[in-house]
Amino acid sequence: MENRETVLVLALILFTVAVQCEYDYENSNVFDLKEKVTHLHFYLFDILSGAKPSAVEVARPNITVGAKSATPFGHVYAIDDPLKDGPNADSKVIGNAQGLYLSSSQGDQLTLVMYADFGFTTGKFNGSSISVFSRNPVTETKRELAVVGGRGTFRMARGFAHVRTHYLNTTNGDAILEYKVTLLHY
Ligand SMILES: *[C@@H]1O[C@H](CO)[C@@H](O)[C@H](O)[C@H]1NC(C)=O
Ligand SMILES: *[C@@H]1O[C@H](CO)[C@@H](O)[C@H](O)[C@H]1NC(C)=O
Ligand SMILES: *[C@@H]1O[C@H](CO)[C@@H](O)[C@H](O)[C@H]1NC(C)=O
Asked: Checking CA distances to 168, which of 8, 10, 31, 117 falls within 20 to 30 Å?
């Protein structure tokens, strides 16, 4: 009799735990599984100089490696870079790229690894963003970054960005980059 009660109590405890562990739920917002292709074209302004830079150094090694560069190996920068619809100072701001980049090459070729969320604040993609996680060999004239995800309209996106340097000041590191992005998303 006592054994049976113990078993019942144990079963009740297990059942309760099982119920509490259910964290999946029905989502009525079922995906339309037709993939769409979207192309985006914009310019990223990465400004390290001046009184209000959009990229600031947040960490560096305690030794100097490759000091000739404006962004030596091992330096980490936090960014809140404006995205604009054109390459000029007065071009319209359409969003911002927030995140980090790391100067990642010990060699002569400056390479950055970017970990950034490119968010859009105007037009039909207002509130949506794409996640860029990629090596960026900045000295190569034509380069490609991987897009690994997104939010909003670009939920579950994947794709790539072709990046071209429109302007670079090698002394202070200021740069204007042209982005042509191709995205697959639902
Ligand atoms: C850098 O930091 C390491 C670890 O704390 C230390 O051993 C080394 O002496 C430091 N190097 C310099 C140049 O300060
Ligand atoms: C973008 O969306 C935000 C939040 O919904 C809204 O406050 C803002 O006015 C929108 N901006 C434009 C330009 O549509
Ligand atoms: C590049 O940056 C340096 C240092 O801030 C500045 O003296 C120089 O005028 C800049 N060059 C151009 C073309 O803006």
From this structure: 117
The average pLDDT across 112-120 equals 97
* Residue nearest (by alpha carbon) to ligand 3 atom 1: 169
30-185, superfamily in CATH?
Answer: Allene oxide cyclase-like (2.40.480.10)
Positive or negative, the CA dihedral 88, 90, 94, 100 is positive
Could you state, in order of their start, the residue ranges of all structural domains in the chain?
30-185
From 162, 166, 185, 186, select the one nearest 176 (Cα to Cα): 166
This prediction has a pTM of: 0.83
Q: Best substitution site from 96, 120, 121, 124 to test ligand 2's pocket, by max atoms within 8 Å of Cβ? A: 121
Provide the pLDDT for residue 183.
98
Pocket test for ligand 2, best of 126, 128, 129, 153 (most atoms within 8 A of CB): 126
68 CA distance to ligand 3 middle (Å):
16
Decide if pLDDT at 72 tops 70.
yes
